[in-house]
UniProtKB/TrEMBL annotation:
Lineage summary: Archaea, Methanobacteriati, Methanobacteriota, Stenosarchaea group, Halobacteria
Organism of this sequence: Halorussus gelatinilyticus
Cross-referenced Pfam families: DUF7344
Domain DUF7344 stretches: 20-119
Span list, region Disordered: 35-80
Protein name per the record: DUF7344 domain-containing protein
Listed Basic and acidic residues bias regions: 41-57
Highest rank taxon of the organism: Archaea
């Protein structure tokens, strides 16, 4: 059996390698969490995020996403982990030129570079891995 055969699935999920590749960067993980409506986000109906066929997420802009990532990333008691040291401008540039095109190529977001609009598409495999990564990141180092 080849590696490609091991990666094949019966549904339209992305490959395991692609899932781990897109989730390897903290800014992509946080962007996906915000776009999908992370647990604890009171502005979204989180019952829909478990639906693998959900494709109607509200679009946002790269600018708004960067602002949310840099302002909201500093733990304000809402359960999100801390991200510091990055300006909204530098995050916006990285999102527009690196992270969102990679997420778009993987089929996880619909991203229009010209308009700066981005909409969450999602994938059940990525969402499971994203949830696991979020719980590990927020837990901090193991004590003991």
């Amino acid at each position: 059996m080849t590696g490609d055969e091991l990666d094949e699935t019966d549904d339209d999920s992305i490959s395991t390698d692609t899932a781990f590749g897109v989730l390897a960067n903290v800014w992509r993980r946080r962007a996906l969490s915000l776009l999908r409506g992370a647990p604890g986000d009171s502005d979204r109906d989180n019952t829909d995020r478990a639906d693998p066929d959900r494709t109607d997420a509200d679009p946002t802009t790269v600018e708004r996403l960067a602002d949310e990532l840099t302002d909201g990333g500093n733990d304000a008691g809402d359960g999100r982990c801390e991200l510091r040291g990055e300006t909204a401008r530098s995050v916006r540039i990285d999102l527009a030129h690196v992270h969102l095109p990679k997420l778009d190529d993987a089929g996880l977001v619909a991203y229009d570079h010209d308009s700066g609009r981005v909409r969450y598409r999602g994938d059940p495999t990525v969402e499971q891995l994203l949830d696991a990564a979020a719980s590990m990141e927020c837990a901090g180092p193991a004590s003991g």
